[in-house]
Amino acid sequence: MKRIGIVGHTDNIKRIQHVIDKSFPNIDGYAIETNEMSHIQTTVNYLKEHINDFDGIIFTGKILYDIMNHNMHSQNPWVFIENDESQLQRILLEARLKHNLDITQISIDSYSEDTVKALYEDFGLSPSQYSAYVSTLDIFSETLIDDLYKFHRNNHLIQPDLISITGISSVYRMLQVHQVPSLLLTPNENAIKNKLYDILEKIKLENMSVSQIVVISIEIDVNNEYDLISENEYSIMLQKSRITEEVYKFTQRIQAAVIESEKNYLLFTTKQIVEFETKNLRELSILSSIKNKTNNTVSVGIGFGITAREAKSNAVIGKTKALKMGGNQCFVVYDRNRMERITPLDKGTGNISPLDLSFKDVSEKSGVSINNIYQLKCIMDIYKKATFTSLELSEEFGNSLRSMNRIIERLEQAGYIEVVGKKIVGKAGRPSRILKLLI
Known about the structure:
Helix content: 40-55%
CATH superfamily of the largest domain: Reverse transcriptase/Diguanylate cyclase domain
CATH topology of the largest domain: Alpha-Beta Plaits
């Protein structure tokens, strides 16, 4: 029996629970009601404390999923019920055929303007043949529910024949109370079933990956190929001995088997142990310990794989990348298409340093997390520059361009990013903005 947390509005939780009761005897659904924006922090705190009580979490909508994902990192599989084009198509047909409403005049949230435009084009309508007000409100606003209600209500006041279409139950109820013609986007049974199958598959893969093989490749950094022979034999042996001691201390903590050569180490362990030791691949203590205790640095690659050969190959790719970037770095390689950096983080006495205070100030003014501010500063330090395109930052972060643009927008509004130019990326397309980081 899999215990699944269902996060969202009461009405949508009931829909999902009905499908579970009807078709999924192997799932125990647990309602986590989040009916208002004011409930978000309470839900975040609850999930942080009880996340291990669940095998996975299903959110009743993408907006709530994005908000929660912004406030905490998932530690088990998360999915959300999507508002896809077929759902919008269904609600518009229902409005026309069942309620005899004019579907060429709408006010809508939960969809992008491009999606709405594409759907009307599929209906054979040009932009001049319909009127669609599409919400672009900030989903992270604490007043989102009220803002969406006002958005639809004001559009209705301007155009009384217009239909309001919303994907948020709380907004729908407010519109109904104030007699604004409105329809609620609700997933059909098949859409809910598909997401439940999806989360069961994710849980299965997660359970399989606990014992996934991880190989860590470590190489001692040297300034040039003659460094090791320029010193006397005793110094070389002593230097190598100190580094090896730190490597083996780390090896003991991650319960790894180790293969050692002249200036390389290969460590074999499992995903679960590595993620625990590195705080979910956020910190790698060996980078700082070797530098602090031996005055040397190492380049590290962490490779994931189903087989030892695949994991080793990925680890070497990560280590090679670290060497090319100047050493004293670590790159995690999950597969050929996904690579992330772990930057060494020296631990102090536990007190907040002046640097931390500046990060805290930037974070509070912009609404961007301290971890993201720190990662941006690390990227600036590594490349020794402050100007990047949003695509370059997205690739360095290892996240989607959309997520990166959200961070950039917040920093730009707070005055920590300015646009200093544009450049063409590729042979065609609009020029990308060149952003200067002021942190």
